[in-house]
Amino acid sequence: MPWQLPQSEVDLLALAKSYPYPAPRTSYLFADGEAGPISRADYMGRVPVLAHGSNRSPAQLKRKFGAAAEIPVTLAWLADYDVVYSAHITQYGAVASTLLHRPGTRVRLAVTWLDEAQLIRMHET
After folding, report:
1. Residue 67's pLDDT band (boundaries 50, 70, 90)?
2. At residue 88, does pLDDT exceed 90?
3. CB-hemisphere CA count at 13 Å for 28?
């Protein structure tokens, strides 16, 4: 597992049941373990990665990358796709989300702007 799971069953169940975790309703810069103000310069030169489900949440970014990471997160609209339940359960017990092609649908999601090391880490998780 790429990040440490809670050891108690109570904490593990709470983690699974709280998926997809709270996320800001505006774009933000994840820094010092929290969401803060963002500027265009924060994400220039980084790789955009669609984020739905937990990857749009500061709490999940902190678990995956640590509080010292800086990750710009912008909100966007995606046309002709919808966010739906995936066909698998995560190792921590949540039913994750996935994207489904659905012409005529428009969904709001996040874009994480990752550097090369963060992109590798995201693939690991």
Report:
1. very high
2. no
3. 15
Distance of alpha carbon 94 from alpha carbon 13, whole angstroms:
9
Written as six digits, the tokens of 48 are 């955009």
**Strand-strand pairing, 47-51 and 28-31:** unpaired
Q: Positive or negative CA dihedral for 24, 27, 30, 34?
A: negative
User: Sign of torsion, CA 11 12 13 19?
Assistant: positive
Average pLDDT over residues 104-125: 96
pTM score, whole prediction? 0.91
Percent helix / strand / coil, the chain, rounded to 5: 25, 40, 30
| Token couple for 120 | 């590798």
Residue from 68, 82, 71, 79 nearest 47 by CA: 71
Alpha-carbon distance of 12 to 14, in angstroms, equals 5
What is the pLDDT of the chain when averaged over all its residues? 94
